[in-house]
Amino acid sequence: MMETLTRWSVLFALVVQPLILIYFLLYNTYTLSLILLSVRQVRRRVAAHFVEDLDLIDAGDLTKPLTMIVASFNEEATIVDSVKSLVHCDYPRFEVVVISDGSSDGTLDRLRQAFRLRRMEVPYRPAIGTARILAMYEATVPLPSGVTRLIVIDKENGGKADALNAGINASTAPYFVSVEANSIPDQRALKELMRVIQEDARVVAVGGQVAIANGCTIQNSRVISVGLPTRSLPRFQVVEYLRSSLTAGTGHGQVRSILIPGGVSAVFEKETVIRAGGYLTPFLTHRITRQYVGQQTGTAREDMEIMVRLQRFVQDKLQNRRFVFLPHPVAWTAVPETLASLRKQRGRWYRGLREALRYHRGMLWREQHGRTGSCALPSFWLFEYYGPLIEILGYVSMAFLLIMERVLDHPLVTYAYLCAFLLASLGYGVLVSVFAVLVGAWRFRYGLADRFQRHLLPFSRRREVLILLVYAVLENFGYRQLTLYWRLRGFRTAAPSHG
User: Fold this and answer.
1) Could you read off the pLDDT of 192-203 as tens digits, one per residue?
2) Domain boundaries, the chain
3) Residue 52 burial (C-beta neighbours within 10 Å; 0-12, 13-18, 19+)
4) What pTM did the predictor assign?
5) Which residue, of 27, 155, 205, 438, has the greatest Cβ tally within 10 A?
6) For residue 405, what are the contacts with CB-CB under 8 A and spacing of at least 6?
7) Average pLDDT value over all residues in the chain
């Protein structure tokens, strides 16, 4: 027994631990490099964010119309306020399509009363298969001048992805954005997102950073004033969201390898989404969907899967198309404030990522997928898919070696190696998180004549930035390891996928 333990201990000390040390160095160097690459784009976008003449979109006759799709299920308490907020969005030409996805409460009744809905046949192109449509309604109340119409679709329950597909079928605009029930679009977001499309017709989808609404003052579904969350869990998540935005979005964008450019509140080109098959549901019969994902009928993160499938479709079938990510906030969302809700969210996120990567692993190392297949996808597989397993194994194996060193009374871990491991896993991680916060807090000017200084973080007070820097340090001592464990559980419980 002791000989077996000794052999395993030596194996971990000589083989496993050095590989894990290399992984930590590789992961943190990769992340830091992406943050460094993002600095120039952050400076340009954030500075211009405050001076772009977005009023030209209001005045332009060629401004592209947009559909805002709201999928709802049993949301009678909030649905009317949410829709009222949307119809007052700052964009000159848009329609709102609300889908009641088999709601069993008073959601439809509240909408009917608030907007004086009239049942009628509205244009509906069944390009994507969905659950059965029960009824269609159009609002008869006076709407703001920029709103071309407000319609409500009542359908059998098929899930959020199916509701979004029904909204796409009912859309009459060439572009659409799906609005999350728990998110609030930034007042300038639609103009800024559509400005990118107006300037470059090659853009298939454009997304942006999602900011955390905890701690903000919200009235009538609008962020009135911005503040730092008061509780610790949301503060840790502010650091996470910022680091993710600078790496997965802006950093990858600088090397033209964006994989998931912000599915929440992203604007999509409708016809390309239809040609790619729509959001993944059991009702899809599209050839492309079956070719890419086989017999799979769903995913935990429909926004993530459609982004990866769009990339694959565009690179396979189309030429010279682009995906764009804006580093500044385009939407605000409330994040979990309890460990139980955060655990469920991270498990679902990881299952969605795992499914998207497995469904589309055929993109790996394929020439037609360029840097997405040779850079973004391999890094997501290594650092996001297998990362939780490798990191947890690293911490557990180090604890195992330290224990066995006492049991066997034999040196297995030198002091120098222990310091190197802690510096690579914890110290380097602290450096990356702190640097991400500093990039977010760094003040930029738009040219030498600009008197104002602007930054990526929505917080302006020095005290708030200092608090975030403290949480950037603390994040690596307990919080990160806890989220890794939750993601690892998602690794174990994710559904099998098509090969």
Assistant:
1) 888 889 888 899
2) 1-60+187-499, 65-173
3) middle
4) 0.89
5) 205
6) 9, 411, 412, 413
7) 86
